[in-house]
Design a protein that fits this description.
62% of the residues lie in helices and 0% in strands. It is mainly α and 103 residues long.
Length: 103
């Protein structure tokens, strides 16, 4: 794969990991939600993502990436309001909170 193609794959990877599937609406003007450390960490994953993509192993790549992300940057404990909104389930509230971008 050439360098330009790798860069495009990398941009798509970063967008996906940021919870943004690339489309015309969110490729420009979207506020950066990751910290500089988080962005740098995501960028180090580009070669591994390209390799996983070539080997058709992106599912395992994303599972490992997701787990590692939440080890490095844990999601804050859900608030009482978030737990109430999740039908009283702390586990469900945490899962819902993890799906939202970090702010």
């Amino acid at each position: 794969m050439n360098r330009i193609c790798n860069e495009k794959v990398g941009l798509v990877l970063i967008a996906i990991l940021n919870g943004n599937l690339p489309n015309k609406k969110n490729l420009m003007g979207k506020k950066q939600w990751t910290s500089p450390d988080q962005q740098a960490w995501l960028e180090t994953l580009i070669p591994a993502f390209v390799e996983a993509q070539q080997e058709k192993g992106t599912k395992m790549f994303f599972e490992k990436t997701y787990d590692t992300w939440h080890e490095k940057w844990p999601t804050a404990v859900p608030t009482k309001g978030e737990i109430r909104d999740a039908e009283g389930s702390t586990k469900k509230a945490l899962a819902l909170k993890r799906r939202k971008p970090y702010r």
